[in-house]
Amino acid sequence: SSARTPLMAGNWKMNLNHQEAVVLVQKLAWTLSDKRHDYAKAEVVVVPPFTDLRSVQTLVDGDRLSVRYGAQDVSVHESGAYTGEISAGMLAKLGCSYVVVGHSERREHHGETDELVSAKAHAAHRAGMTPIVCVGEGLEVRQAGEHVAHTTAQVAGSLAGFTAEQVAGLVVAYEPVWAIGTGEVATPEDAQEVCAAIRAHVRETFDDAAAEGVRVLYGGSVKAANVAGIMAQTDVDGALVGGASLQADEFGGICRFY
Ligand code: PEP
Q1: How confident is the model at residue 40 (pLDDT cuts 50, 70, 90)?
Q2: Residue 103 annotated in active site
Q3: Among 46, 93, 89, 41, which residue's Cα sits nearest to residue 65?
Q4: What is the pTM of this model?
Q5: Active site residue: 105, 175, 193, 250, which one?
Q6: Cβ distance 214 to 167 under 8 Å?
Q7: How far apart are CA 173 and CA 122, in angstroms?
Q8: Over the chain, what is the mean pLDDT?
Q9: ipTM of this complex
């Protein structure tokens, strides 16, 4: 229905050391090479811990795998006295195509604000990578019926300072917090409601081309068994997948999404 290439991104969170990462990426590459299925529809991305990235790079480059990869976070700073942080330049040098910013776990456990998330998105973009900007409401906001207002406000804050032309190339992930890691997947209609609202917000704030270009993902307990209904929605352009991305066959099922 649109020119947007579906994007399936597997967020491994704090799982798998670099040796385990190599095993999973090899299994995933094997799964995606199965000619009985059409895996060509989606762009497939893995998002391992920082310490795995060099090994993933070596494997992907050496075997010319069609899998891309990214990081789970990035510093807003370019270099210097920021102990423990990782710069966008370092990630770009490792061949990262994407950086997840503002994941709900970072907003919750590390106090990340929309302002910081925006700064991180800009840092990634300046270094030539595509930020995957995460937004989404918690259970109380959902129960109060404020989920659209809450989420579009997060989008406004997190995309602040980008031009319409830049936004057309970005990725926004709608992840209702109550559906992350809980097994409680949003219904396809719930996902569509908020993903459509995000696109409408981008249209109002930026322009038509930004709205048509930006890829809006759904995230929250996506599995091979429920991905088809979610992907059938007009404004859902892919999935950000946590738990199910740790198994090659399950994530493979998500990547072919029917
Ligand atoms: C996530 O952490 O981005 C996520 C969607 O997790 P899960 O798929 O495990 O709910």
Answers
A1: confident
A2: yes
A3: 46
A4: 0.97
A5: 175
A6: yes
A7: 16
A8: 96
A9: 0.96
